[in-house]
Every structure is written in structure tokens, then in C-alpha cells.
Amino acid sequence: MSEYTNVSEIFGEDVFNDTVMQQRLPKKVYKDLKHAILEGKELSPEMADVIAHEMKEWAIEKGATHYTHWFQPLTGVTAEKHDSFITAPLPSGKVLMSFSGKELIKGEPDASSFPSGGLRATFEARGYTVWDCTSPAFVRHDAAGATLCIPTAFCSYTGEALDQKTPLLRSMQAINKQALRLIRLFGDTTAKKVTPSVGAEQEYFLVSDKNFMQRKDLTFTGRTLFGAMPPKGQEMDDHYLGTIRQKISAYMKHVNEELWKLGVTSKTQHNEAAPAQHELAPIYAEVNVEADHNQIIMQTLKRIASQHGMKCLLHEKPFAGVNGSGKHNNWSLTTDTGVNLLDPGITPHQNIQFLLVLSCVLKAVDRHAALLRESAADVGNDHRLGANEAPPAIISVFLGDQLTDVMNQLITTGMADHSIESEMLETGVKSIPEFMRDTTDRNRTSPFAFTGNKFEFRMVGARDSIAPANMVLNTIVAQSFKEACDVLEKAEDFDMAVHDLIKKNFTKHQRIVFNGNGYSEEWVEEAAKRGLPNIGCMVEAVEALTYEESVSLFEEFGVFTRAELESRKEIKYETYSKAINIEARTMIDVASKQIIPAVIKYTKNLADSVNAVVSAGILDVDVQTELLRDTSALLKDTRDALNHLKDVAKTAADMEEGKERAFFYREKVMPAMEALRRPVDELEMIVDKEIWPMPSYGDLLFDV
Ligand code: ADP
Ligand code: MG
Q1: Which of 211, 281, 305, 353 could disulfide-link to 201, CB 3.0 to 4.6 Å?
Q2: For residue 331, how far is its CA from the centre of ligand 1 (angstroms)?
Q3: Beta partners for 106?
């Protein structure tokens, strides 16, 4: 029997949220903190002391013994260093529990072990974590007890960003400023703030603990490096939105409860396309909070899985041959008065502000397509993008019939005088209710699709932080807004000027709009004709970070300095090299120590059987000898491929860090890995299951 959950009672119970602050903080302190959160005003040290004290008291009541600054360095995961609240013992031998404003605001973890991409010499180890009061603190309960977690930004001694959060916060300031200028032009004088709102849908796989532990590739790299396809994959489409099995729904319930307590609005859950694949989507939130929440979601999915005898795989491509996992990033812009700037209304052709915003987004995405593509580049995502299961690696925008029609009217006649209206949905069944269908169908193949009142950026990888993608989106759109406002604020005839600008933006950037099938070969050719970049992999994508137009964009809006961009590039190359190096070494290890010995054992069994059968007087041993010959041939192929992989992996490991090495991994090591996988997967189809040294794809995907 499942226990009844009172959601409204548990929701946010472990969060130092507005209600708690209002209850606990003196009125004046509460007001100042709200100002700091909403308008970026600075807090005085005295105020910080009061807040820290109340936070500590509250956390202790929740069972916390420690606090930690929780941050997102460029390692791909979050980091934390725990301190207990205790003070030095008093003369009586007792200790007090204390937490000061200084400790709340600033931490000083040794930064030398985090990636800095050359921003900092190793001996200059100082780094700071700085309280981000716009994302609420929370108490996390785990096996080790309870910890007060304080979301923080992480930067170097000289203020350079060493994390995902700092640039995201900077980009939010940039778009806020420019969006406010834009809405003022249209007469909005009340809104004080414009924030990007984001809802990130998280895909993941679940496998059984037992199977996972028997696969070194999953353990070390998060994906399978060997594995033949089972007789059944996802071709029946029977997993997507299928009935959720009891074991999985118990897990989802547990995950939801944990997330709700932490104030994460877990809302939607369903089975995804591949067997053993699922999705969780929260209700959208301010992008900064959403980026933190997404990290909490990923951690919670993993932690709770272990408690249910499973492992949660967040890798973008855990299995060849079935769909990988991504993170659909739904993005819109909302004023503090609740207006969504991406809401077209019922008659978009008359909504001039919306059309301007839309044309600015098209301009931004067309101009910085490579940068946006880069923002979703990570090692695992290389297996996904462009593989007919996820968006292609080419950036384009899906607008749908209605908006494309409005755009085309503007481009061709200079006037948009109508919007395609929605029609009744005709099902031919009298007993089911009638309703107006949407004005446009969905398009699942587009990387950047307009979906009613938001854009859905579908490229982000399942394991990746959503911060870079949103940081880029915010900044490139801020730039388009700025350029629009620079013209419009000076215009003598505003109506005329805005009309001209919208037409100009649409005309110049219409090539980025594509409503067709993004998976098709024709699109690849068409996109090339249109001059749209098609960037196949992470190591190629990285270059976009330091295109001249990227550097000037980021510098102008105070999001990155050139040095920070250079450093991020270095980090990405290194991350790539290290990840592929681990994969190559894992393959070498598994092939040498598990696969080849198992196959030798199998061939010995076959040879013994041939001898036994012959000595029993039966001369027809064709089947056994043929198997033996095939197996031995594949065994030889395996050994040759293994030796080749060892050679190139060694060459790569001896190279100097940087771009050239990353490309070597991509161009030489990856193909050598594929060459080793081929004969091994064939052997798996031949060799006795009892002898094969690890669980098969069939076991992993269907025996969860
Ligand atoms: P889909 O059918 O695309 O899979 P889901 O319901 O799974 O849709 O997820 C849609 C996501 O978009 C949710 O996280 C939702 O909260 C979010 N979302 C809805 N409206 C907006 C908006 N205006 N801005 C940003 N995100 C939004
Ligand atoms: Mg969804």
C-alpha cells in the first residue's frame, strides 16, 4: 500500500523561502533582503549577520549540523565543502553553534583543484564562493545527516568566473536592462524587472544496480562502450508514454517527494522513447533558480535510484542504437508584473511588441548560431546531435504556420493584416468534445522551436548544466534588443521605425527559419545553401567561443572577458580529451581482461567439443569447426583493434594539453574505439551467454 502524501504540506519544507524569511527575520532585515533579491541592492554586514543567525537556527531545527557553500565549478558537477556550526570549546568544555554573516556571504575553498583553463597559476590557489541570495538556501537530508546548502557563485581571487553561475547571473542583468528599455518604448512604465523563465525537461535511464555493477564501462564512463543490440529495441514505440511499472512509479513518487520538500516543482513524469528511459519536468522558474533546481533534480534522481536498487544514467548516450537523453530547455521572458514577452496573443500580426521581440530573437539566433550550438556541446552530446533522434547539429528556428505566415506577409508586402486562425478539431466522433486546435502543429525535429509562448531549445545534453545555453540565449537576445532600442529610442516616428525594423530583421534573418523535417538529408543540403553552420562535434564547436563577434558580444554585455572565454575553451578541450581517454582506457581494460579471456575460454570449449565428438566416432563436425573458425577470426580482429587502440591512446596521452590533442582524440582515438567495438559486438552474438563477461543490452534495458 502506498502512503498518502500531503503535497501542499511538504512542499518547500526544507527551503529557506519567502514564508520562512518573513516569519523569522525582523521586518527591516526582511525588506532589505527582498530588495537585494529583486533589485540587486547590497546587504550591510549587520543585516547579513542577522540573516545568517536565523538561517542557522532554522537549519538546526531541521536537524542540520553543517553548512556548505554549494557551487558549480566547470567540472560538470556541483561542489561543496562542509563546515559544522560549532565554535571552539568554551572554558566549560561546551561548544556553541554559530554562523556569521561573513560565513554566509563568502567562502574560500582552495580553488587550485578546479578547472580554470589557465586563468590562475596553480600556486595562486585562492578562490571565493559568494552567496547568491536570488536562489534560496535549503537543507539537504542524506545518510550523513542534514546540511544547510547555500547556493553560491565561484570566482577567482581577481574576480574571474570559475563556474556556471556567475556568467548566467551576468547575462540575466544584461537582458534585464535591455528588455526593460524595450518594453518602456511600448509604454510599460510599471515593470521593474524582466527575467528569463526556464523549464528544463530532464530525460534519464534507469538500470538495475546489479547489472550496472557488472559493467565497467557504465561504472567508469556512464555509457556502454560495447554491446550488441538485443532482439527488441524501441521500434515498437511501446515504451513512450506507456504505463509506468510499479517499481518505477514507486521510485518516481520518492523522487517527487524529495524534490517537493526542496521546493522543486516536479510536475510531469512519463516513460520516454527508449526502453528504461524516462522524463521528469518541473514547472518553469527564473532561470537562475531553474539552473540550481536542475542540478538538484539530477542529484536526487541518482541518490534515490540507489535506494531502490537501481542506477540512474544521465549520460547523453548510454546505449548505441536506442534514443539518447537530452534536456529540453523552454525559455521565455517575463516581467515582474507577469507579462510574457513571447506571448503572441490571439492576433499576432497586431502585436507589434511581440513581433519586434520575435524578430530580435531570430536575428540573435541567426547571427550567433555557432555560439548557441557550442552552448550545448559536451562530450556525450556528440553521440546525440544529428543522429536522427535528437535535433540536428544545425541550428534553425521552427516558427509554425501562423507566425511564418505573419513573417512572410511582412517581408513581401511590408504589411501583416491577418493571422491564420485556429480551426475546430474534427475527429468524426460525436460523443467527444469539440475544441479549437492549436494554430500550428508541433515539430519534434527542430533544435529551437517556438511552442506557443516560449522557445524550446532542444539541444542541451541530459548531463549538462542548463546554465551555458541560457547564458548564451540571454546575451545574444540582449544584444538584439539593445540594437533595436538604440534605433527606436531616437526615432522621430516610432510606429514607422518599429515597423521598418521588424521587416528588416525578418528579411535579413529569415534563412534561420525552417519548419520542415530537420532529420532529413535534404535539410542538411538546404542549410548549407543557406549558409547555416553545421558543426558536427564538440571540439569543432568550441572555436565559436572566441570568434571575434562572440568576444565583443560578451565583453559589451559584461558576461565574459576575452581571458575568461579563452580559459573556457581550454577547459572544454581538456574535458574532451580526458573523457575520451577514460573511455579508451576502459575499453582496453575490458577487452584485455574480460572479453578476450572469455572468448578464449569459449574457443577452448568449442575445440574440446570438436575433439570429443570426433573421438566418439562422429566425423561431421562442420558446425563446431565453422563456429570455431569464425570466433577465432573475430578474436584476431579484436586483438588487432585492441593493439591499435593502445597505440593511438598512448600517442594521445603523451601529447601536450590543448586543442590539437582534443582533435587527435576525436579523429584518431574515437575511430580506433569504434573499430574495437565492432568485432566485440559480433562476438557477443556468437559466444555462449554463460561465458560472456557482462550483462547484455537486453539485460540492461529490459531487466530493471
Ligand atoms: P512537452 O510537451 O514539450 O514535453 P512538458 O510539459 O513536458 O512539455 O514541458 C514543458 C516545460 O515548459 C515545462 O517545464 C513547463 O513548465 C515549461 N514552460 C511552460 N510555459 C513556459 C514559459 N512561458 N516559459 C518557460 N517555460 C515554460
Ligand atoms: Mg516533455
Answers
A1: 281
A2: 9
A3: 130
Residue 330 alpha carbon to ligand 1 centre in Å: 6
- CA 343 to ligand 1: nearest atom: 23
Task: Indicate which ligand has the atom closest to the C-alpha of 331.
Answer: 1
Dihedral sign, CA of 180, 288, 154, 83?
positive
Helices (H), 493-561: 494-509, 521-530, 538-541, 548-556
Q: Report residue 136 as a C-alpha cell.
A: 534560496
| CB distance 195 to ligand 1 below 6 Å | no
The closest ligand to the CA of 199 turns out to be: 1
DSSP code, position 117: T
**Could you read off the pLDDT of 364-391 as tens digits, one per residue?**
999 999 999 999 999 999 999 988 788 8
C-alpha cell belonging to residue 193: 524587472
- Confirm if 464 and 381 have CB atoms less than 8 A apart: yes
What ligand is nearest to the CA atom of residue 452? 1
- Placement of cell 509506468 in the chain: 244
ipTM of this predicted structure: 0.96
Distances from the Cα of 461 to the Cα of 202, 376, 395, angstroms: 9, 6, 15
Amino acid letter, residue 360 = C
Question: Which amino acid does the sequence have at 130?
Answer: V
Residue nearest to atom 17 of ligand 1 (CA): 199
Cα distance from N-terminal residue to C-terminal residue, the chain:
21
DSSP 283: P
- Cβ of residue 212 lying under 6 Å from some atom of ligand 1: no
Q: What is the pLDDT of residues 554-582, one digit of tens each?
A: 999 999 999 999 999 999 999 999 999 99
pTM metric for this prediction? 0.96
pLDDT tens track for 481-514: 999 999 999 999 999 999 999 999 999 999 999 9
Cα–Cα distance measured from residue 342 to residue 330, given in angstroms and rounded to the nearest whole number: 12
φ, ψ at 538 (rounded to 5°): -60, -45
